């Protein structure tokens, strides 16, 4: 980690190393099977040659000297070429650190001077934008002395719950050889980033897309959706194939691992109103659906955990008015007016309207590819409860190719409510 | 070409056959006339590898001592003195040469030598092309290692995609031979070799999907190999499936064996689970039992040291590493172990330059030629 230099000659110095989990050394080695080197690949085809070679090899094996580096050249076990012996490596660099992970560090305070220091009080804190968190404080029982060349070591841990700049502040208060009370602060900065983003889409289904922003692949240990009181959630996922009989259970079903640097995985839930909520009001405001608890693991099971904010659902209300395109001509030509049949339906149990049908003017004032030809507003009479009205709209297309009939709205002039044409209709515009 | 077989200058005990006077004009490696004495007719001078190839015992010996410089000198000498008479000798020497160059990290030269080869499946490299030398022999003279090296070099030069393509092509080649040959045990071994190599490269790049597929295929061939099944556990730990790994290690334990090797394997697996659960004290205890059973178990030694460090005992961690290097240098002298020790030095000493230099000097005296001392970061 980067550290800022301290002023004045200090007898003590802090050495710091982040202690995330060690990792397996993986490196396919350059080691061979003598049968593959000492003769041609088809030499052993006949049994007498094969036994000849075997005999010679075992006679060389018998001579085993201490100065042999044979394990760097010959393979012992058929799986040696994998290069995964189970040997662990210390972390080679600080690495990246993400919200929800645990920051762990080895801290060593060394006396590199030529004389003893006494009465050492050591403190370690994490300083963020919002707060200062104490990790270690020996002021109640200070270290009596650290001899020349000696060290005092400690390990600190902190669950990272904030984003952004963090500073590990290590400080030592001590009496040097001259009896002078000295103060040594050292600062190690690091930045905490956001590991995941969770995007949701829902109707009565909730689809969550989890995207991995870290530099490691994340093994998704647990992704749990906790619905709000008024919902019950059912996780939907594909049927797992039964494991093959000879490997029964040895290889688990494919684990969910989200690739580093932008990999995604989707989770799908069906939301059902809980049985104790009576009926379903037609026009609810936005509702809270619930939140996700996510636990992931990386190398050697290093855990991280996060909770999302409450996820909100769109208004559950049914639409009062439905306007849609019923029919368009089979051939539509550029800049030639055509007639589209539309339908306006009243889905409520009361009279609504009259309506004014027009094209919305959006902020850009750009010409819409499909516009109303002639009078820009069409008046439609009131509609009875559950009634509907078929009408024609005269339209004109000003662009070639696949275009959308969109942006047409019906304004209820009495209740002052606007309804959009849904769904948008695609048409193909040919040239003259 | 000169039809008269010349006397072989360097093998006075051969009697050149005068009856067989045709010289094979195809010479893929050097342009000198072939000796025509059948290879199999060489009288057995010793019951050793030299019977197969000139001075092979010495080459084998040097390779197991890590003396690759000497191997290269020997090869260059044999070329200048024209000591090699048979195609299979030249191929074996060429393979040793390329391997040694790679070991010494002289990759451009290794690549250059590889490029001098003709198509490995061509006539040049088949026994039946030289019936006067190999009267009853059929098949490929190419040492399988040479094919493997041909796939490895691009990866070492940085062209990972080309190397992987070649390895997969090699795997297909091996699988074809398994289908076609009757006696294919050796080829099955080679199949496991290539699959293992591919698995290592995919794991190194964290390509866990492909890696798991390869592990599955390996397990289909050897479902009861405790070392292989343990490696599945390590892969699971690598991507974080702790429960999966624990289940895998339990299966290994049931494969019951009383040998010290097996007990150490089970012990090391148990220790890894302790490491994951941050119970470093128990991990250290497991590793100590392993070391007591087998003082050459360098994985246990290295991992024990790391666990000591994670238990805040940096001093003892360093002692364990240094003592191993002193006690069992031929196994402890490993770039990863030394790298770990240097990380510990950097943490323990403000002026770590001196202690690392001392280590570096010792390594220079004791280590084999191929030891990569950049791991000391001096």
TrEMBL record, chain A:
UniProt cross-references to InterPro entries, sorted A to Z: TRAPPC13, TRAPPC13_C, TRAPPC13_M, TRAPPC13_N
Domain of life (superkingdom): Eukaryota
Pfam families xref list: TRAPPC13_C (PF23643), TRAPPC13_M (PF23647), TRAPPC13_N (PF06159)
Occurrences of domain Trafficking protein particle complex subunit 13 C-terminal (ranges): 329-429
Residues covered by the Trafficking protein particle complex subunit 13 N-terminal domain: 10-192
Residues passing through the membrane, by range: none
Domain Trafficking protein particle complex subunit 13 middle residue range list: 200-310
Family listed: Belongs to the TRAPPC13 family.
PANTHER family (alphabetical): TRAFFICKING PROTEIN PARTICLE COMPLEX SUBUNIT 13
Name of protein: Trafficking protein particle complex subunit 13
Organism field: Eruca vesicaria subsp. sativa
Automatic annotation (TrEMBL), chain B:
Gene3D superfamilies associated with the record: Tetratricopeptide repeat domain
Stretches the record annotates as Disordered: 1-48
Domain of life (superkingdom): Eukaryota
Biased composition, class Polar residues, residue ranges: 15-28
Protein name: Trafficking protein particle complex subunit 12
Coiled-coil residue spans: none
């Amino acid at each position: 980690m980067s550290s800022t230099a301290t002023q004045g000659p200090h007898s003590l110095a802090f050495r710091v190393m982040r202690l995330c989990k060690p990792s397996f050394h993986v490196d396919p080695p350059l080691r061979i099977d003598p049968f593959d080197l000492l003769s041609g690949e088809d030499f052993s085809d006949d049994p007498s040659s094969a036994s000849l070679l075997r005999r010679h090899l075992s006679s060389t094996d018998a001579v085993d000297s201490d100065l042999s580096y044979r394990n760097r050249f010959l393979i012992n076990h058929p799986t040696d070429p994998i290069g995964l012996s189970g040997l662990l490596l210390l972390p080679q660099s600080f690495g990246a650190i993400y919200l929800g992970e645990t920051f762990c560090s080895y801290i060593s305070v060394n006396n590199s001077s030529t004389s003893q220091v006494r009465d050492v009080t050591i403190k370690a804190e994490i300083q963020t934008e919002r707060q200062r968190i104490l990790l270690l404080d020996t002021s109640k029982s200070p270290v009596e002395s650290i001899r020349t060349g000696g060290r005092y070591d400690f390990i600190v841990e902190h669950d990272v719950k904030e984003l952004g700049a963090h500073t590990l502040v290590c400080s030592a208060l001590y009496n040097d050889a001259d009896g002078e009370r000295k103060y040594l602060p050292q600062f190690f900065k690091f930045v905490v980033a956001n590991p995941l983003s969770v995007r949701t889409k829902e109707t009565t289904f909730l689809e969550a897309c989890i995207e991995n922003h870290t530099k490691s692949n994340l093994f998704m240990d647990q992704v749990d959706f906790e619905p709000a009181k008024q919902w019950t959630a059912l996780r939907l996922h594909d049927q797992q194939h039964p494991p093959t009989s000879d490997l029964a259970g040895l290889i688990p079903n494919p684990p969910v691992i989200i690739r580093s640097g932008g990999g995604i995985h989707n989770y799908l839930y069906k939301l059902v109103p809980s049985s104790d909520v009576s009926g379903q009001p037609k026009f609810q405001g936005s509702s809270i659906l619930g939140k996700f608890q996510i636990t992931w693991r990386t190398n050697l099971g290093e855990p991280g955990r996060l909770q999302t904010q409450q996820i909100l659902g769109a208004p559950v209300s049914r639409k009062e008015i439905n306007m849609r395109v019923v029919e368009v001509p089979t051939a539509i030509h550029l800049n030639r007016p055509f007639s589209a049949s539309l339908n306006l339906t009243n889905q409520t149990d009361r009279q609504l309207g009259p309506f004014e049908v027009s094209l919305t003017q959006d902020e850009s004032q750009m010409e819409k590819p499909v516009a109303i030809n002639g009078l820009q507003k069409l008046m439609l009479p009131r509609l009875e409860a559950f009634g509907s009205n078929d009408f024609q709209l005269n339209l004109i297309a000003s662009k070639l190719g696949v275009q959308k009939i969109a942006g047409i709205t019906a304004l209820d002039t009495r209740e002052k409510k606007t309804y959009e044409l849904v769904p948008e209709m695609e048409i193909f515009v040919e040239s003259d | 070409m000169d039809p008269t077989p010349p006397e072989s200058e360097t093998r006075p005990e051969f009697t050149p056959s005068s009856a067989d006077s045709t010289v094979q004009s195809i010479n893929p490696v050097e342009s000198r006339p072939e000796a025509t004495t059948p290879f199999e007719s060489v009288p057995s001078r010793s019951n050793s590898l030299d019977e197969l190839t000139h001075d092979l015992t010495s080459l084998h010996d040097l390779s197991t001592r890590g003396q690759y410089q000497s191997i290269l000198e020997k090869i260059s000498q044999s070329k200048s003195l024209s000591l090699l008479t048979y195609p299979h000798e030249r191929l074996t020497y060429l393979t040793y040469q390329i391997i040694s160059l790679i070991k010494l990290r002289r990759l451009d030269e290794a690549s250059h030598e590889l490029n001098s080869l003709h198509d490995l499946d061509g006539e040049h490299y088949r026994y039946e092309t030289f019936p006067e030398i190999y009267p009853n022999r059929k098949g490929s003279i190419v040492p399988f290692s040479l094919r493997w090296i041909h796939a490895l070099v691009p990866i070492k030069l940085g062209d990972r995609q080309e190397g992987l393509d070649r390895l997969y092509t090699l795997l297909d080649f091996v699988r074809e031979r398994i289908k076609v040959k009757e006696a294919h045990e050796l080829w099955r071994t080679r199949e496991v070799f290539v699959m293992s190599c591919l698995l290592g490269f995919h794991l190194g790049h964290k390509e866990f999907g492909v890696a798991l597929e390869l592990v599955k295929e390996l397990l289909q061939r050897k479902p009861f190999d405790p070392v292989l099944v343990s490696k599945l556990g390590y892969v699971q730990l690598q991507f974080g499936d702790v429960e999966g790994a624990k289940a895998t290690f339990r299966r290994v334990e049931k494969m019951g064996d009383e040998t010290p090797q097996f007990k150490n394997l089970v012990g090391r697996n148990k220790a890894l689970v302790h490491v994951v659960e941050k119970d470093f004290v128990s991990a250290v205890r497991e590793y100590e039992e392993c070391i007591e059973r087998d003082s050459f178990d360098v994985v246990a030694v290295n991992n024990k040291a790391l666990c000591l460090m994670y238990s805040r005992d940096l001093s003892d961690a360093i002692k364990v590493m240094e003592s191993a290097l002193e006690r069992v240098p031929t196994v402890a002298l490993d770039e990863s172990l030394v790298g770990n020790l240097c990380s510990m030095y950097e943490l323990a000493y403000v002026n770590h330059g001196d202690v690392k230099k001392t280590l570096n000097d010792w390594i220079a005296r004791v280590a084999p030629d191929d030891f990569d001392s950049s791991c000391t970061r001096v």
